[in-house]
Amino acid sequence: MKHLLRFQLLFLATLFISACAVPSQRAAVGAQAAKESQINSSALTRAPEPKSQDPQAKRRPKDLTVRILLAEKQKSALIKHTGKVYIYTLNLDKKYKISAPGTLSVKALGSGKIQVGTLQANKTIVLEPALNTLLVWNKNSYSGKIFIIPAGNTFHLVEHAPLETYLYGVLPYEMSHSWPLEALKAQAVAARTYTLKTLENVKNQNFDVFSDVRSQMYKGGGKQYDSVKKAVDGTRGEVLTYQDKLFFTYYHANCGGGTDDVRSWNPGAASIKPLSGASCKTDSHSKSYKWQMNIPRSKVENYAKRVGLSGTLKSLKIARKTDTGRATNITIRTSKGSKTVPCGNFRLAVGIRSCKITKLSVRKNDVHFEGKGYGHGIGMCQDGANGMAKDGKNYKKILKNYYPGSEIKNISNYYGI
Q1: Cα 135 to Cα 222: distance, rounded to the nearest angstrom
Q2: Chain-centroid distance, C-alpha 286
Q3: Torsion angle of the four alpha carbons 13, 19, 25, 31, in this order, in degrees rounded to the nearest 10
Q4: What keywords are assigned to this protein (predicted)?
């Protein structure tokens, strides 16, 4: 197992080294997420990184690069820069710089051609902020390079950001920056591990992660909260492993008194000890611990139609649940028949807060639900982590509780951060 961990860490080192070598070819190789193992050498080969045009770039800390999809299929955008910015094509055949703060207009000209400021090209154009300059788009601030990638009559915006800077922009939008430092540290380790696990199996040629809940919420690393910076910097390079391998460190808002095995949410996932469920006695302080909601009947009926069941809603029943009381399957009965569906899909479709349902009743105009928790209930309970931190527990004890059997490893030395 130690040899396998060393191989995985060398894989991460390769990502970092190739990010710094210019020009170079970067490869993201990895494992199928469900198997949690076996490096896949046939994974994506990334395009070469262009040489930095900022003479001060060497002052930036060494780090892995994460490519974040900020927006897709845009036709225009206004990107502000707070200081000097370099604008150039990937092969550097076209380039210029602007020293004073200002706003750059980005336009799709059609047929794969774009314009950024005064530069036009039928290829990717890069905006590189100088050291201490921020790029501002959609009210969010970014310190990494933004790649404007032509896509027919539109373009995509992708930021290339250092891993640790990326985490500065994830934490305050996944957990309140006002929470105790130890809870934020636990979140930093979980978010870092989740990101690096994702990088093992990248399939898109242009980006690694989304900037929303499809990956982790991210609103730019330009705005940095002191508490978040302390949490990220204080755990720099730390990740969670199980049997010397990274795993997907899922987390959610509130577990309602206990988390569950990953298979209760994703039946196709491999069950491992850190994702087998954990006790939680520190989340009851939250407003999310108990809830009740009234969902219009029409919303449930529309979902039923999408899964092939027409007719008027007659009843809803929990077909199966876990030992903690979380429903895994819901049976929908209408005037035309019945169908059993995964509760996770049902939850997202109709908008209930969790599948830990304690009461439900079909009424004349709506369906009344009562329950506990908020989210899928797998991995770390964020409200529980907050409670444990307030009770004096450090981040290592928090992580040990919610990911039982896992180990904290520091991989900084392997990729030079």
Answers
A1: 8
A2: 23
A3: 40
A4: Signal
Q: What is the pLDDT of residue 70?
A: 98
HSE-up (13 A, CA, CB side) for residue 2: 0
For residue 164, the one-letter residue type is E
The model's pLDDT over 360-385, given as tens digits with 9 standing for 90+, comes to 999 999 999 999 999 999 999 999 99
Cβ atoms within 10 Å, residue 57: 14
DSSP class per residue in 124-183: -EEEEEPTT--EEETTEEE-SEEEEEEETTEEEEEEEEEHHHHHHHHHHHHS-TTS-HHH
Quote the tokens at residue 204. Answer: 């898109």
Cα distance between residue 391 and residue 282, in whole Å: 9
Q: Minimal CA–CA distance to 297: which of 334, 339, 336?
A: 334
pLDDT score, position 52? 85
- Polymer length in residues for the chain: 417
Is the model's pLDDT at 27 over the cut of 50?
no
Best CA proximity match to 327, nearest among 351, 355, 300, 349? 355
Partner residues linked to 337 by β-bridges: 334
Question: DSSP labels for 161-174?
Answer: EEHHHHHHHHHHHH
Whole-angstrom distance, CA of residue 127 vs CA of residue 147: 6
Poorest-pLDDT segment among 113-127, 311-325, 402-416: 402-416
List the Cα angle 272/275/281 in 5-degree steps. 145
Share of the chain above pLDDT 70, in %: 87
Give how far the C-alpha of residue 316 lies from the chain's centroid of Cα atoms, to the nearest Å.
33
Quick one: tokens of 298?
């029409």
User: pLDDT category, 28, cuts 50, 70, 90?
Assistant: very low
